[in-house]
Amino acid sequence: MTDCPLEPVFDRVILDRRAPSKVGSIIIPSAARMRNAPCRGRVIAKGPTADESIIVGAEYIFGVHAGGFITKDGTPAALEDENAIFFVCSDTDLIALVKE
């Protein structure tokens, strides 16, 4: 699990949303990697008013238009920014718990 130097407020959750770097033997450029990242991520932190049923460490599916990328210092990040390692959204943007 990624260390999170940020603590979300209210009902926000922070997810580790990793994009694939390769598909088979094809290396995906960073801009396309972030743009086409799957709508799923592992919750690494949740705010104090986030729903109690959200499990830190569990993987969730979230809406296509949910949240945004930020850097570890909390600044907004463009999709192609290599430092955009966290994804922040509201707890109501989480659609389903991944059970694998």
Describe what you observe in this structure:
The chain is mainly beta and 100 residues long. It has one helix and eight strands; from the N terminus they run βββαβββββ. The chain has one helix at 30-35; strands at residues 12-16, 22-23, 26-27, 40-46, 59-62, 68-70, 86-90, 94-97. The strands form two sheets. A six-stranded antiparallel sheet has the order 6-7-1-4-5-8, with no helix packed on it. It has a two-stranded antiparallel ribbon with strand order 2-3. β2 (22-23) and β3 form a beta hairpin. It is globular, with a radius of gyration of 13 Å. The mean pLDDT is 80.
Indicate the proportion of strand residues.
25-35%
Count of β-strands: 8
The end-to-end distance, rounded to whole angstroms, is 17 Å
Largest sheet: 6 strands, antiparallel
Give, in spatial order, the strands making up the sheet with the most strands.
Answer: 6-7-1-4-5-8
- Which of globular, elongated, flat, extended, rod-shaped describes the shape? globular
- Helical amount among residues, as a percent range? under 10%
Class by helix and strand content?
mainly beta
Rg measurement, Å? 13 Å
Mean pLDDT: 80
Taking pLDDT < 50 over at least 5 consecutive residues as the criterion, the unreliable ranges are none
Sequence of secondary-structure elements: EEEHEEEEE
The number of distinct helices, counting runs of at least 4 residues, comes to: 1
